[in-house]
Amino acid sequence: MLELAILFFVLAIVAGALGAGGIAGMSMTIAKWLIIAFLVLAVVSFLL
């Protein structure tokens, strides 16, 4: 899951550099939610 978040983050940076603001914003939103989900699952797995 962390790999997907990094992939979407890189995609957002590349799209932003090329001027595709809509795709960059959407990719950053997806990356943000994937990182949040990863952190929640990591904390749950450490507690169990």
TrEMBL record:
Mode of membrane association: Single-pass membrane protein
Keyword Transmembrane: yes
Pfam families assigned: DUF1328 (PF07043)
The organism of origin for this protein: Halalkalicoccus paucihalophilus
Record's protein name: UPF0391 membrane protein HAPAU_04480
Superkingdom assignment: Archaea
Keyword Cytoplasm: no
Chief location of this protein within or outside the cell: membrane
Family: Belongs to the UPF0391 family.
GO cellular component, one term: plasma membrane
Subcellular location: Cell membrane
Transmembrane region(s): 29-47
Keywords: Cell membrane, Membrane, Transmembrane, Transmembrane helix
Lineage: Archaea, Methanobacteriati, Methanobacteriota, Stenosarchaea group, Halobacteria
